[in-house]
Please model this.
Amino acid sequence: MATIADVVPGSSVRHGFRDPAYRAALGVEHLGADLAAPIGTPVRSPVSGRVSFAGQDDASGEGGLGAKVQADDGASVGVWHLSRVDVAAGQRVAPGQQLGLAGQSGGAVYPHTHLQVEQPPGTPVDPLGYLAGLGGGGIGGPIVGGSIVGGAVVALLVAAALLED
Ligand SMILES: [Zn+2]
Model:
């Protein structure tokens, strides 16, 4: 399994998925998990996949700077309120690869990373549950079932995943 430490090291969950307190305070459903961490903390991809978006949230501006990864398992994994983005749309990323730095951009009122997982895209799910379902240390089903790396590497990753499960 993976944890929030694999996405934002040292972070803690301030508001979880569909947090009733968040809904009561802001009048909207919270569709991700808010990982509180200082500005400048590395934000990493928990999955292998392709960057589908990187940059400023143009839709509402609320997200600020963000990045979304189209994971190889079909999920969409987004991180928002970053202070810096280190990837570009179309780029492939591996588990553990840095997507950017935590920040307080967009509508964030304190430094945190909004982690939103949609599986399939358009259907938000609890990010913590999604992370827990991944293989060890973020090395999970996506790579084991993938086709992007050579057989020897796959065998190593499968062994690592089995050891850490
Ligand atoms: Zn949030």
Summary: The radius of gyration is 15 Å. The chain has five helices and ten strands. The domain at 4-164 is CATH 2.70.70.10 (Glucose Permease (Domain IIA)). The first helix runs from residue 4 to 7.
